[in-house]
Write a structure and sequence with these properties.
The complex is a heterodimer of chains A (159) and B (333). Chain A is mainly alpha-helical. Chain A is built from 9 helices and no strands. Chain B has 2 domains: 2-173, Stage V sporulation protein AD (Peroxisomal Thiolase, Chain A, domain 1); 180-332, Stage V sporulation protein AD (Peroxisomal Thiolase, Chain A, domain 1, 3-Layer(aba) Sandwich), CATH 3.40.47.40. In chain B, helix 2 (50-68) packs across helix 3. Classes of the chains: A mainly alpha (159), B alpha/beta (333).
Chain lengths: 159, 333
């Protein structure tokens, strides 16, 4: 809890929170980091293998193989989500399964699955970006800001 | 009769003539599988949505309880029910099916015991002969509403809890055989400023302690009066905090007499983090497991302190803290 929030608490509340906090197990941050490294690395290794596969057996080069690779990774993630397996992998892998493109596919697929009972338009269509939406909004916005900075520096004679 | 500040004593001691618990596949693998009347291997129950499935769980629990009581729907005057879904639709839809005059309740995970207290009040005052109490929750429906989509890969912290899929129901009557409701203590809403929905146990523990102390103060009895005192769904972390808070206040309870429904429900190897939660946690444990133990006379007197976290997904997003409640009911055999 941030210090700003703490200021609004009464002394009794603060005292209790310290009391409770001492009895709560903390998130195992170090173990989570190690697992995220292994899980994320594993997913990226598969991605690398898929990319090499496209380069070796099909008419792709390092630059163009990216698109079909991402499509394959998204498909794998969506299938695992649909089979109810991705959330179990994520409980173990944490950020390692959330950060790569597979995590992004999981957010959209899982939200779509849950909303199907509310119909295809208002349910699936309306909710599929429930979790992915903020990622897209702020991703596009930060790209825009970075691009503005780059253009400004360039026009001032930098780089 | 009012006793002290907030406790009702039921002079006629209304009887729980029948009770039923229905659970899902995850509950079937748990500790209390033998205490369920019906266990399903599918959380959908052949329905098109989780919410409809929850209604089916509830309907089945209610119908089983009425049948076990040897009654017909027409013999039940009132139906008191609640759940966790927005606008308590599983309860209201079940009331539509049962066609019994209905009062919808909301006390989050404490709803079943809130219902039991009010049902006993109705029966004790002869405003009804047979009153049906029910409560339900559904893991996937709750996850979808309160947290993230069910298949979304978010890592849960060790303080998180697992919502029970199922429903519990009981018939409270003026006469008959079975465990009797002796008293109920209605709790205050307590908010200690916690706001993490993945740490409900710590948020609810002070409410449980407040109602606990109110009960013994009003009743002027000692905790040793009961064979077992159970909290609702604090889970192992919240339960430990509540126990330590009571020790701090000079009340030491021996481990075998002080338990929690959220800790009893599942086996240690099931991935439920801190334990079970949800309306169905207290409902199925009390109306299944504890009723069976009372009927077998393994237990004579128990106190169930059901806890509820009165937050909504919106209040959490608006950075509100979590107000909590606890309702206690004393049941005797």
């Amino acid at each position: 809890m941030s210090s700003i929030n703490r200021k609004n608490l009464t002394p009794a509340q603060q005292q209790y929170q310290d009391f409770a906090h001492a009895r709560e197990p903390q998130r195992p941050i170090f173990a989570n980091c190690v697992r995220a490294f292994i899980a994320g690395g594993f997913i990226c290794t598969i991605g690398q293998a898929v990319q090499l596969f496209f380069i070796t057996f099909f008419n792709f080069n390092e630059k163009t193989a990216g698109d079909p690779t991402v499509a394959v990774m998204i498909m794998i993630s969506v299938i695992l989500t649909s089979l109810g397996m991705y959330d179990h992998l994520a409980q173990w892998g944490g950020a390692g399964t959330a950060v790569p493109v597979t995590g992004f596919a999981n957010t959209i697929a899982s939200a779509s699955l849950d909303s199907k009972s509310e119909g295809f338009v208002l349910g699936v269509g309306g909710n599929m970006f429930k979790i992915a939406g903020p990622v897209i909004v702020f991703g596009v916005f930060s790209a825009f800001v970075v691009a503005i900075i780059k253009v400004t520096i360039k026009s001032l004679g930098g780089m | 009769m009012l006793q002290g500040h907030q406790t009702w004593i039921f002079e006629s001691k209304p009887v729980i003539i029948a009770s039923a618990a229905v659970g899902g596949p995850f509950e079937a693998k748990g500790n209390l599988a033998d205490d369920f009347d019906v266990l399903h291997d599918d959380i959908w129950l052949g329905q098109d949505s989780y919410e409809q499935a929850e209604s089916k769980f509830l309907e089945q629990a209610c119908e089983t309880a009425i049948k076990k009581a040897g009654l017909k729907k027409e013999d039940v005057q009132f139906f008191l029910c609640g759940d966790l879904i927005n606008q308590i639709i599983p309860s209201s839809f079940t009331a539509r099916t049962l066609a019994i005059p209905y009062l919808g309740l909301y006390g989050a995970c404490s709803t079943s015991i809130e219902g039991l207290a009010i049902a006993s009040l109705i029966v004790d005052n002869k405003f009804g002969n047979n009153v049906l109490v029910g409560a339900s929750s559904h893991n996937a429906a709750s996850e979808k509403q309160y947290r993230y989509p069910t298949e979304y890969g978010a890592q849960k912290p060790p303080t998180a809890q697992w919502t029970v899929t199922g429903a519990g129901a009981a018939v409270v009557a003026q006469q008959g055989e079975g465990p009797r409701v002796a008293a109920a203590t209605i709790g205050r809403v307590i908010d200690m400023g916690l706001s993490d929905p993945f740490n409900m146990g710590a948020a609810m523990a002070p409410a449980a302690v407040d109602t606990f102390e109110a009960h013994f103060r009003d009743m002027q009895i000692d905790p040793s009066y009961y064979d077992l005192i159970t909290t609702g769904d604090l889970g192992k972390i919240g339960h430990r905090i509540a126990g330590d808070l009571l020790s701090k206040h000079g009340i030491n309870l021996p481990g075998e007499k002080w338990t929690d429904c959220g800790m009893l429900m599942y086996k240690a190897e099931q991935p439920v983090m801190a334990g079970a939660s949800g309306c169905a946690c207290v409902a199925t444990t009390t109306f299944g497991h504890f009723m069976n133990r009372l009927r077998k006379r393994e237990l004579r007197r128990i106190l169930v302190i059901a806890t509820g976290a009165l937050l909504s997904p919106m209040s959490y997003q608006q950075k509100e803290t979590i107000p909590c409640i606890a309702t206690a009911v004393a049941i005797e055999m």
